[in-house]
Amino acid sequence: METQKPTFVQALKGGAIAGVIAAGANNIWSLIANALGAIIPPGFVVPVTMSSIFPLIIGSIIFFALMKYSPKGKTIWLAVCVVFTLLSFFPVFTTPQLPDGTVLDSTFPILAGPMHAISGFLAIWAIPKFSK
């Protein structure tokens, strides 16, 4: 049973580490997805990297608050992560184009779906692990 709660800086560190791991894993997945036939939109690396790092850093702040102010912080964290991860899949399957106007093809879910799963898993596992 965990007796020590993370400090704000420790939680940010955990989020940053989780974000960097997610960015690396998601960029590697984009290469694998491309090899499987998914079409990568132009300039995809930067948005993938930023969208992998920043949400996990923001998530680490939420994790810190839950751990500090709730006796069931870890359970609530798990539930919040699962719900947000599941909700994040909605635009993967329903968005016809990117914000810059790039029209998405039928291979986009193959590309983006696993990225959402990777980031969700790392929020659940890596933020608590690296916030110690």
Task: Explain the layout of strands and helices.
Elements lengths: L7 H28 L9 H25 L3 H22 L13 H23 L2
Question: Would you write up a description of this structure?
Answer:
The protein is an all-alpha fold and 132 residues long. Helix content is 74%, strand content 0%. It has four helices and no strands. The protein has helices spanning 8-35, 45-69, 73-94, 108-130. Helix 1 runs antiparallel to helix 4, helix 2 (45-69) packs antiparallel against helix 3 and helix 3 (73-94) runs antiparallel to helix 4 (108-130). The model has no long low-confidence stretch (mean pLDDT 93).
Q: Terminal Cα separation, in Å? A: 13 Å
- Along the chain, the helix and strand elements come as HHHH
Structural class, by secondary structure, is: mainly alpha
The total of helices stands at: 4
- Report the average pLDDT across residues: 93
Helix fraction, binned, reads over 70%
Rounded radius of gyration (Å): 16 Å
Question: What share of the residues does DSSP label as strand, in percent?
Answer: under 5%
Q: Which runs of at least 5 residues are low in confidence (pLDDT < 50)? A: none
Please report the total strand number as a whole number. 0
Could you describe the largest sheet, including whether it forms a barrel? none
Silhouette? elongated
